[in-house]
TrEMBL record:
Residues 10-63 form the DUF397 domain. This is DUF397 domain-containing protein. Residues 1-20 are annotated as: Disordered. Residues 1-18 have a biased composition (Polar residues). It comes from Kitasatospora aureofaciens.
Length: 70
């Protein structure tokens, strides 16, 4: 995406499937039409911002096993 999104007020959530191994991502659900994603180990680091529909397609593909065992 080419637009800048202000994420300073984002409410970040980590999956309930995340363990304590440090390999987690966090998402912010409070941006209509967008899905910000960041590395939970580096909350002050960069975030990727995807169109919501693209994120939904990615999650669906992961759940269906399209990428193998992750």
């Amino acid at each position: 995406m080419s637009e800048n999104v202000d994420l300073t007020g984002a409410s970040w959530s980590k999956s309930s499937y995340s363990g304590n191994g440090g390999q987690c991502v966090e998402v912010a659900f409070d941006f209509q039409g967008l899905m910000p994603v960041r590395d939970s180990k580096d909350p002050q680091g960069p975030a990727l911002v995807f169109p919501s529909e693209a994120w939904k397609s990615f999650v669906s593909a992961v759940r269906s096993g399209e990428f193998g065992d992750l």
